[in-house]
Amino acid sequence: MARIDGVDGKSGGPVLRMLYRFAAKRFGAVPEPLTVLAHHRGLMGANVVHELAAQRASTVLPAAVRELAVYRVAQRLGCSWCVDFGAMLQRLDGLDVERLAHIDDHATSSAYTDDERLAIAYADAMTDTPVGVTDAQFAELRERFGEKGVLELTYQIALENMRARMNGTLGIVDQGFSSGEACRVPTR
To answer: What is the residue extent of each domain of the chain?
Structure first.
């Protein structure tokens, strides 16, 4: 249970009701992090605009590469909400969610491409404390994905670190967005 109860859409006014309807239509339910942020309308608005802008701008990398890296961060940080939501997004994008159960074996598994392995390892290095990205690792990513691609990957991994840490701190847990085996992926 979240440490701060979400704002009910019925008591939130017309703008909040419209935002909740949009979110429910897009995702099947209103994401709990949004309902909790609704207590602070300025931050909620900034978050919505930022998320939409980051999504719209992320067009350089293949979706599978980007989404696997983001998912890995959620899994490493133990954000069950992010794991749940990320698995749903991958399923809706037509990506193979069955292989998420084997993400810990990404370095040796034939289920992952070389590009995906690089992105997952980069997500691990960026999520470590302190950050463990090496010059050689960065150079390989830059060569493989180009400057825009590595910037996009870096940004998305950093953004997921923020989401996962915020949701974990606020006690926001999985909401049932994913289905099947994907929602049973263990978190660390």
So the answer is: 9-57, 63-184
Residue 57 CB neighbours (<10 A) = 12
**Distance between CA 159 and CA 127 in Å, rounded?**
11
Q: Which two tokens stand for residue 26?
A: 């897009």
Q: Where are the alpha helices (DSSP H) in the chain?
A: 14-27, 32-37, 41-57, 63-77, 80-92, 114-127, 135-170
**Taking 70 as the threshold, does the pLDDT of residue 82 lie above it?**
yes
Q: pLDDT at position 186, please? A: 41
Are 32 and 39 in contact by the 8 Å Cβ rule? The answer is no
pLDDT digits (tens, 9 = 90+) for 31-62: 999 999 999 999 999 999 999 999 999 999 99
Q: Which residue type is seen at 159? A: L
**111, 142 contact by CB (below 8 A):** no
Task: Report, at the CATH architecture level, how domain 63-184 is classified.
Answer: Up-down Bundle (1.20)
Please say if the pLDDT value at position 109 is more than 50.
yes
Contact between residue 4 and residue 36 where contact means Cβ atoms under 8 Å apart: yes
